[in-house]
Design goal:
The complex is a heterodimer of chains A (about 270) and B (about 260).
Chain A (H helix, E strand, L loop, with lengths): L1 H10 L2 H22 L9 H25 L1 H4 L1 H10 L4 H35 L7 H32 L10 H11 L1 H4 L4 H6 L1 H14 L17 H24 L6 H5 L2
Helix pairs in contact in A: 1-6, 2-3, 2-6, 3-6, 3-7, 3-8, 3-11, 6-7, 7-11, 7-12, 8-11, 11-12
Chain B lengths: L2 E9 L6 E10 L3 E5 L6 H8 L4 E9 L2 E2 L9 E3 L12 H11 L5 H9 L15 H15 L3 E5 L7 H13 L3 E6 L2 H5 L5 E6 L2 E7 L6 E5 L7 E5 L2 E7 L4 E2 L6 H9 L1
Parallel strand pairs in B: 3-8, 3-9, 6-7, 7-8
Antiparallel strand pairs in B: 1-2, 1-4, 4-5, 9-10, 11-13, 11-14, 12-13
Helix pairs in contact in B: 3-4
Classes of the chains: A mainly alpha (about 270), B alpha/beta (about 260).
């Protein structure tokens, strides 16, 4: 019930269509026609497209997930009430939210893949759409990455509502996005250590997204001619492990959820 | 015992400043009304009972279980609108969501809405409803889901006369326990058999019986025949029986009556 309605409400969310649709389109166009216009050639068009796709996916997920999770802050009274006086459990609620998010991710990921491939195909005059197998693989990895960002966003919102001032909730949108710019961009400008890629989803996620788009092994850099290869099962396991840990933290934070005064929420 | 408040002090979670102190109240298969002026702490009691306000001392027990440990208990519900905002959704979705979380069917709620001529609210979001519509919707949800205990905050507020009478009838017909609070003394006269507490500045006085309303008086100062002496920041008065300054039976709003008796 919550999944279905939440999914519908997400589809009607204008922020979602801005960050997930327009924002992706803008970055794809910017990358294809301005930032990479001098360097893109038919021979390097595919890896460049894959790199842009990886980064745009992360930026979109990081901003959209927090924007949507902020709704949680409005529901603190009813959540606390529901956990005590209905059959809704904290785990079930989180799974419902994630299910809606996964359904929504189908639209988001498709948008990013198609826009990016289309823009770079036009720009490079080369066909850079992923093949069917690559499409499925990169779609699955993007789902996994999306779940990570959603769980993280829920955690951030709950941390603020439980332990801080609700007025800070609007600033949360910037945290995952800033981390994308700080950590994920390391793959564009350098070669971070393999260990960092295994322990940081911000680093392993773009590597895995790019690799699955290209149907190749994940590497620790998008630019160096001497990349180090990653074990993709280990890189995936790193992300899954983080998801398990953050899911447990989310359940804990939901257990200690503090109801917000409606008056304080109206000031946000 | 359905509900037991034992020496309870309640505080806002943020400031941790006590709002109500040392409350004692028991509810055992009965209907109770807490009557008091605006701002006396009536809503806070209900919030405390369902765990929305922090308990700084004492205990709130629902069917023997400390509210702090309650999880998945059914048959207890309130009419506080904020407890029904799990989704920013139309009333129909809210209704169906809570029914699915409580394994009940929405037909009864729909038939009540029909009785109140309020089916038109179902496609609207809660925030789009008028205060009166919100109140009736949440009253109906509370009486349907709170089959063991319904906690009703100002259930008659902003209702028109016809719906107010229907609401009074629903409360009379309700089979479970009720704890309702109101500043509307007039409504209570129509609910004979309700236990009654008066709350002034966060302290409970009683318990009286709503059947005795016609015999209860507010009297200025302290008198020997007082059955309750109430000390407030704005003066002392007492509740007396069969004689006194102002009969509660003519009171519609307790604030006005207190103001009148204290002068």
């Amino acid at each position: 019930m919550i999944t279905g309605y939440y999914f519908h409400s997400l589809l009607r969310n204008k922020f979602l269509w801005f960050w997930g649709g327009f924002f992706s389109l803008m970055w794809s166009a910017l990358g294809a026609f301005i930032l990479e216009s001098g360097s893109i050639t038919p021979s390097n068009a595919l890896p460049i497209t894959a790199s842009w796709y990886a980064i745009i996916t992360l930026v979109s997920f990081s901003s959209v997930s927090v924007t949507l999770s902020i709704d949680l802050a409005w529901s603190t009274n009813s959540l606390l009430f529901s956990f005590k006086f209905t059959k809704l459990s904290r785990g079930k609620y989180l799974v419902d939210l994630l299910s809606a998010w996964v359904m929504l991710s189908v639209f988001l990921i498709s948008t990013v893949i198609l826009f990016t491939a289309l823009m770079f195909s036009i720009s490079s005059k080369t066909y850079v759409f992923p093949g069917p197998l690559s499409f499925l693989k990169t779609f699955a990895v993007a789902m996994l990455v999306g779940i990570f960002f959603m769980l993280l966003a829920v955690m951030l919102v709950l941390l603020v509502t439980d332990y801080s001032n609700i007025k800070f909730v609007q600033f949360l949108s910037f945290i995952p996005m800033v981390l994308v710019f700080v950590l994920s961009y390391q793959l564009i400008y350098g070669s971070p250590s393999i260990l960092l890629l295994y322990i940081s989803p911000w680093d392993s996620a773009p590597s895995l997204l790019q690799a699955t788009y290209l149907n190749s092994l994940p590497v620790n850099t998008f630019v160096s001619p001497y990349p180090k290869e990653l074990s993709w099962p280990l890189a995936l396991a790193g992300i899954v492990l983080w998801e398990v840990i953050i899911f447990a933290l989310d359940v804990y934070l939901l257990k200690h959820i503090k109801p917000q005064e409606p008056e304080a929420m109206r000031q946000v | 015992m359905d509900l037991e408040l034992d020496g309870v002090s309640l505080a806002y979670r943020r400031t941790r400043k006590n709002i109500l102190s040392n409350l004692n109240l028991k509810l055992d298969s009965e209907k109770i009304a807490v009557v008091g002026p605006n701002g006396s702490g009536k809503t806070t009691i209900i919030k405390g009972i369902i765990g929305l306000t922090e308990i700084t001392s004492g205990s709130v027990r629902l069917f023997g279980e400390d509210i702090r440990n309650v999880s998945g208990m059914t048959g207890v519900a309130s009419n506080l609108v904020d407890t029904y905002r799990i989704l920013e959704a139309p009333a129909r979705i809210i209704m169906e969501t809570y029914c699915s979380m409580l394994n009940t069917e929405p037909e009864k709620i729909v038939s009540h809405l029909k009785k109140y001529e309020m089916l038109s609210i179902l496609p609207k979001r809660l925030r789009e409803l008028s205060t009166g519509q919100q109140k009736i919707f949440c009253n109906i949800m509370a009486l349907e889901f709170g089959r063991r205990i319904a906690l009703l905050d100002e259930p008659f507020e902003t209702l028109d006369m016809q719906r107010r009478l229907m609401q009074l009838q629903d409360l009379k017909n309700f089979k479970g326990s009720i704890l309702l609070n109101t500043h509307d003394f007039g409504a209570l006269k129509s609910l004979p058999g309700f236990g009654m507490y008066i709350i002034i500045e966060g302290k409970l006085y009683g318990k009286f019986n709503s059947r005795d309303i016609n015999r209860l008086y507010l009297t200025k100062g302290e008198v020997s025949q007082a059955i309750s002496i109430i000390h407030t920041n704005y003066g002392t008065f007492c509740i007396t029986m069969d004689e006194g300054d102002i009969p509660l039976s003519i009171s519609t709003d307790l604030s006005d009556s207190i103001q009148e008796v204290i002068g």
